[in-house]
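Form P-L/3: holo structure prediction, ligand zinc ion.
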Amino acid sequence: MSFDRKIKIAPSILSADFADFGREIRAVEDQGADWVHVDVMDGHFVPNITFGPPAVAAFRKHVSTVMDVHLMIAPVDPYIDAFAKAGADIITAHVEAGPHIHRTLQAIRGAGARAGVALNPGTPAEAVEHLLDLADLVCVMTVNPGFGGQKFIDMTDKVRRLRAMIGDRPVHIEIDGGVDPTTAPRLAEAGADVLVAGSAVFRGGSVSNSAPYGENIRAIRAAAEAALA
Ligand code: DX5
Ligand code: ZN
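OUTPUT (holo model):
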């Protein structure tokens, strides 16, 4: 996994058919996804439950790009090794999920994965200021985490501040929540390079009719890249 700031589209399989993850993952990759975003929820840190390490290990067999695992769980530390063993390329933990995010990021890298740190909409950019040398990715939530298909909360100013704070460091800025062709341009322009999208990728398609996934991915990418031109 080499570092670049090109726009990357990361479909969230939270919007996929939960009875058919293998084919859904292969369908979005065939249709141009750069990464596959996996949302892990515990019914405690967020008010929804999705899947744990055995399911993530099963997804891994179908991912040929980058498996980006977003942990919305508290505590995080007891599960890091299990998600690393499940094959996560990137493991992202929330600043708000515990008192020791610095230690958590060290543990993620220690387990052999890239380390991501996520910020809820109410958390300022400055919360990661002293973590940037320990992180490979900062995830800016543009919804309150827990569900797909929520209304976008504009965090463009936060992205701009983060981009300035990151400077030359090889740290991705990822946006998660309500990304579509109308919201992507301002985020790309502010410095985001990874755009997670659930409902805006999976809408209109299915595993047996996956062309709409490709149209949706291309529409988000084109809108973001146009803002950089
Ligand atoms: C929200 C998840 C997101 C979600 C995004 O808690 O972290 O990854 O799937 O879904 P959309 O793109 O539909 O807002
Ligand atoms: Zn997510």
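COMMENT: The mean pLDDT is 98.
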